[in-house]
Amino acid sequence: MITVTKYSEEWRIPWDNFISISVNGNFLHSRGFYDHNPANDADECSFIFLKKNRIVAVLPCILYEIAGARILHSHLRSTFGGFVVSNEIGAAEAVIIVELIIKEARGLAVTEIIIRNPFRIFNTQPADETDYAMWFHGFSLKQRELEIAIDLQESIEVIQKRFENGTKYNIKKAEKSVVTVLSEDFEGFWKILDKNLQEKHGKNPVHSLPDLIRLREKAGKENIKLFAGYLDNKLICGTVVFQIGNRALHAQYIASDSGYQELRPINAVTDHIIKWGHANGFHYYNLGTANEEGGRVLNHGLFHFKESFGGRGVLRETMHLHLKDQHED
Question: What confidence score (pLDDT) does residue 327 get?
C-alpha cells in the first residue's frame, strides 16, 4: 500500500538520499537546490510517497494563488519538477500515486495542478509510468518545449563528423586565438551574461550572481561548472553547465561578448565541452532550448546554432489538470 505525506524538515536527509538512488532524480531535485531561492520556503508544498515506511517517490511542489485560483506547481522556480520515482514504481503504482496527489490537491482547494517533467535523457532508466498515469487521470499537455541535445556515446570522431561544415570552420577559427578552460570567474561571466540578455531581450538572468554562488554552495560546486573562453587572458565568453550525475551535462547559461563575435569564441567553448563530456563518460550534452512563449515561438537562428553541432531535439513537457473540470468520486 502506498501512502502520501507532506514534506517537512524531518524528511530532508531521507529526501536527498532517495533522490540519489531514484531512476529520474538529480541534484536539481535536491533540498539544497530548492534552498538557494528563499521564496521556495514561503510556498513549499512538496509530497512524499511511502511504501512500508520507505520513500518510493517524491513530488517537489509549491502552492500559490493567482486571481483567486490556487495552483499546485511542480516546480515554478526550478529547472523542472515532476514525479521522482524509484525502480519499484510500475504502472499500477504510478496510477495510485497520481490519484493520491489529486486527492491531496482537492483537500487543499487547489484549482489547477501543473507539472513540468524532467528530461528523459537525464534518467538512469526509462521512467514514463507517471506520464501515463497523469494522462490516465485526465491531465493534458499545457506546453511542449524543444531542447537540443548532443549524443556523446559514440567515438569523438563520429560525434564531430556530425558537425556542419560551417561549424567545423568556426571552431578552427576560434581555436587559433581562444583558449577554453574550467574557470571560477563567475563574476566576469555574469557581466557578459547580463549585458547579452539586456541587449537581446531586455531582461536579467533567472539567477543573479549571488543566487548562483549560493546555489553552488548548497547544491555542490562540482555540479555547477563554468567553461570559459579567454582571449589574451580576458574572459570573452562562457557556458555555465549543470552536471547531472554521471549521465548528462546541461547548458544553463551561454553568453559571449558581442565585441568578439567575429572570432566565434562560443564555438570553441562548445566543442571543448563536447570533448570534455565525452572523455568523462557522459551520455549527453544538452544545449538547452531556443523556444519562447512556452514553446510556441522558435528562435530559428539559435536552433540552427545548436543543431549545427549534431544536436537533436529533446522534449520538455508540462502537464496540467483543472480540478474544477473533474467530478468528485
Answer: 46
Helix count and strand count (H, E) for the chain: 11, 16
Q: Quote the pTM value.
A: 0.92
Q: Which amino acid is at 23?
A: V
Pairing of strands 248-256, 284-289: parallel
Phi, psi of 139 (to 5 degrees): -65, 150
Residue of 303, 263, 265 whose CA lies nearest to 287: 303
In the block, residue with C-alpha cell 532524480:
25
Return d(Cα 215, Cα 225) in angstroms, integer. 12
Q: How is residue 75 written as a grid cell?
A: 516546480
- Is 203 exposed, middle or buried (CB count within 10 Å of its CB: 0-12, 13-18, 19+)? exposed
CA distances to 8, 44, 209, 234 from 22, rounded to whole Å, are 20, 21, 30, 41
φ/ψ of residue 152, rounded to 5: -105, 10
pLDDT digit string, tens, across residues 105-114? 999 999 999 9
> What's the grid cell of residue 178?
581562444
Write out pLDDT tens, residues 270-295.
999 999 999 999 999 999 887 776 76
